[in-house]
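Our platform keeps sequence and structure together, in a single record for each protein. Because each token names a local backbone shape, the row as a whole describes the fold. One such record is reproduced below, unchanged from the form in which we store it:
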Amino acid sequence: SDTLTAGGSGPTVSFRIEAYDIAHLSGKETVGVMTVIENGQLAKSEYRKFKIKRGDGAHDIANLREIVTRRLAHTEWSLPQLIVTDGNEVQKGTVEEIVKSAKLLIPVVAVTKDERHKARSIVGDTKLVANHRQSILLANSEAHRFAIGYHRKLRAKIFKN
């Protein structure tokens, strides 16, 4: 039977998805964010904000590289079973390269948007995409919302000064 042994609640099977997005206005006040979906639910306490440290804020691939590298340096944070990024094969390949250089095996998918910023397709492992489509799209739209909100907050601070 599936009884748990004393001393703990046993292994909790959790599927964690992390999504990343970048926001800037012509390269100014560039920010990156990470949002988390655990078992299909928003895990807002796990969200993280990153101020981009590089100079040229309009370079999205370099910004994505920076935030994912900085995130993976946080070994105290739970690792995801799937990473979601905006974009296409280029963004997907960039994140895969970072994950591989961190000696991790985490699949990556990219959500490609149309001109109205609506999800058009998801690039990545077709089985993973089929099994987690709703969570992938939720994570991606939540990352976009969170990035825009954080960016607006920073911009408002600048205009007050």
